[in-house]
UniProtKB/TrEMBL annotation:
Gene3D superfamilies: AhpD-like. Residues 153-217 form the Carboxymuconolactone decarboxylase-like domain. Pfam families: CMD (PF02627). This is Carboxymuconolactone decarboxylase-like domain-containing protein. One of its GO terms (molecular function) is peroxiredoxin activity.
Length: 230
């Protein structure tokens, strides 16, 4: 795990926010998920505290921001690594101000059958990957059948397609920000296009990419080649 010396001061955090493409762009969840994937969970509370102070007007909006931050780290952990997600979510839990301590899972329990969740996962997967969805799922399943089943039923069915807290657009942006530190060009290319399919604009996708890359560079991440772009 990366050392505990803090790299992210207010000036750098401001520079991340300035990469946003609009005033309400969720820059903080993208910075946090990139940090989790980089394995720098100890930097996440600084992002969280800054966003609470500057991007939330009152306690209600602070609670929404907190829910989004935690949900983004949860969703990102299924791509960036569960142990990293555990450490990132623990860092957020320890940084919660007293007035925002609440149930650790803000999701409402869904009254859906396993087959309904699987179908929802297929729909989200197909919308994300568009015309190449069938080929991608076939490639995954041919490599290891249980991986394909888990992708549809669990990753996309139970988690990614649950949009109670993060919209499909926000979920796609989180996936992009998480994949950039992992240096996986084929998957990143698919999700850059998937962001468009899930309602993000070109400007939002480029902003998510820029924020994640800035975080990666600060954390010392090196890529073997060019980072995919639209």
């Amino acid at each position: 795990m990366a050392g505990s010396t803090l790299l992210f001061d207010n000036a750098f955090i401001v520079s991340l926010k300035q990469l946003s493409c609009s005033e309400r762009f969720p820059w903080y969840i993208l910075a946090a998920t990139a940090l989790s994937a980089c394995n720098f969970p100890h930097e996440i509370p600084a992002i969280y505290r800054y966003a609470l102070e500057h991007d939330a007007r009152d306690q209600a909006s602070q609670l929404v921001l907190t829910h989004k931050m935690r949900e983004a780290l949860f969703k990102g952990s299924l791509l960036g690594g569960l142990p990293k997600g555990i450490n990132a979510l623990r860092a957020i839990k320890n940084a919660l101000p007293d007035h925002l301590h609440e149930d650790p899972s803000p999701r409402v329990k869904e009254k859906l059958s396993s087959s309904q969740i699987e179908e929802r996962g297929k729909e989200f997967f197909n919308r994300t990957y568009g015309k190449v969805a069938e080929r991608i799922l076939k490639n995954i399943t041919s490599s290891y059948k249980d991986l394909g089943d888990a992708a549809i039923k669990t990753i996309y069915g139970s988690v990614m397609s649950n949009v109670q807290i993060l919209s499909p657009r926000e979920t796609s942006l989180v996936m992009i920000a998480t994949l950039i530190p992992l240096d996986v060009p084929p998957q990143l290319r698919g999700h850059l296009k998937g962001g468009l399919n899930n309602g993000a604009t070109m400007e939002e996708i480029r902003a998510a990419r820029a924020i994640s890359m800035a975080v990666c560079q600060k954390c010392g991440v090196k890529w073997r080649g060019e980072v995919s772009n639209l």
